[in-house]
Amino acid sequence: MKSSAETNISPLGWAAYASILSFGSLGAAWCLASYYFNVPDFVMPKPHLVGAALKTGWIDGLLWQHIAFTVEATLKGLAVGCGIGLIIGIIVAEIPALERIVFPIVIGIQSVPKVAVAPLIIVYFGFGIESKIFTVAVLSFFPIFIGTLRGMRATDADLLDLYRSFMSSRLHTVLHVRLPSAATYIFSAMQVAIVLGLIGCITSEFIASTQGLGFIIKSRAGELDIAVMFAAILTLSLFGTLGVAAVKMLERFVLFWDQQRK
What we know:
The protein is mainly alpha-helical. Helix content is 79%, strand content 0%. The protein folds into two domains: 1-39; 42-261, MetI-like fold (Orthogonal Bundle). The protein has helices spanning 4-8, 11-36, 47-59, 64-94, 99-111, 118-125, 129-153, 157-165, 170-207, 213-222, 226-254. The protein is globular.
């Protein structure tokens, strides 16, 4: 029999404990390298220096303007990219003949390194937030498109036959059968899209920007202000972790019928 302690802790609780343990181990290794092995601060700054930089950035407000810029660009880009990827994925899944036309184009666009076309993006959209939104949208489009397409094609054939036998419309079948069946694929793709979106936004800020966490990292690199760079990187890591966690929580809420996700 399971003990009361085992039954009272959910899988989510175990995951939280595992995350705390992993981050605690990483922090202990960082402190050991910084204080015991005397790794130079320009290679790995001591935790208290990064803590001071985080205080200056978060509490004193030095980074708030740049955080807001990066978050806004990322969220808007994700909304555009994920929305278009979802719509095109549904259309291609419903009209298989389009796959031979759309899929090579999507693969071709995705295969081009975004750094290589960054000058063109700047020419077309400028140095402002628009170029960052476009880059995030392009990077987040692909996983959502693939997830939607594969998920809808994995729908139970017997269930589709049942709906056809009752003369269900195509739209009704998509909304009530295909999309719910593809939800797991789509939510998994959203987690990938968040990570790719942040990477795309920061890369775009590296190339041409006067705002954002990517701009802070690039500008402080020239001054060898490693502590502030680490603070910006930790902030990005926090946002990525929170974004993925939010998608997982939304997935558990939406897929309430799937007991394995509770």
